Amino acid sequence: MENHLENILVFATNIKTEVDKQKVSNLLDDHSGIHQWNIDQEDIDCVLRIVSNTLSEVQIIDLIYSQDFECAVLE
Amino acid sequence: MRTRDTNKEELVKQKAIEMLVKLGIEGFGMNRLAKESGVSVATLYIYYTDKEDLIKKIGIEIGQNFFNEMVKDFSPTMPFKEGLRKQWENRARFALKYPSNVACWELLSHSSYRDYILHESLSDFKIIMSDFLKNALDKKELLPISTEVFWCVAYGPLYSLLRFENEGKNFGGGPFKLTQKTTDEAFELVLKALTL
């Protein structure tokens, strides 16, 4: 059985520290297209997880790039 | 749209439980779990927001499964002897059927996740068991003792026997098998200690 979820996008980033996280927090918090987000900073890839029904992977990558962080789709 | 496959999710959960028992919370990681479950790290993050979320969800699920098994054919209004016997049956069945889950539960209940998991999964069970004890006290079927002493005397012998059963060995290193006769023998002694 499979059930459909909201669109979840996951990325490997270099958003490593609390200070790094602060730099992207406002942007992600305030974005109307982002329903929920978190970064697993315990993980080696500092995985950014975004729940959004409207944004594409490329749009998220652009958003993170704009804050001078790396961001790649996690395979 | 990404979809989630519930069979795969079940496999991930079982693997996570095994790994938590084997490696402990500190040694456990999402990357390794992905590798050992044969799913991509990205897939794991579809299921769970992070390691903490995964551990909490697994703990709550084990707690809820435990709760569902414990209340099977049990009612807090049962006579004390009958109710306690049912608890022994239910606890033994759960422990023997899901040894990894029980080991994982033990681990999590000694961690910082303890309060959250207990609150989320066993609040109702606590109420049911309190009612059971209160009824037994009111009916003068049970000695007035503290909850901790009650728990030790009521279930300690069962969990000790289950440990022998899990190890399959007795004190002398010979084979051990938990039989109905042994269980009944212990249960009768427990009743003697707890009842008026």
TrEMBL record, chain A:
<protein>
    <submittedName>
        <fullName>Uncharacterized protein</fullName>
    </submittedName>
</protein>
From TrEMBL, chain B:
<dbReference type="InterPro" id="IPR001647">
    <property type="entry name" value="HTH_TetR"/>
</dbReference>
<dbReference type="Pfam" id="PF00440">
    <property type="entry name" value="TetR_N"/>
</dbReference>
<dbReference type="InterPro" id="IPR050624">
    <property type="entry name" value="HTH-type_Tx_Regulator"/>
</dbReference>
<keyword id="KW-0238">DNA-binding</keyword>
<protein>
    <submittedName>
        <fullName>TetR/AcrR family transcriptional regulator</fullName>
    </submittedName>
</protein>
<feature type="domain" description="HTH tetR-type">
    <location>
        <begin position="6"/>
        <end position="66"/>
    </location>
</feature>
<feature type="DNA-binding region" description="H-T-H motif">
    <location>
        <begin position="29"/>
        <end position="48"/>
    </location>
</feature>
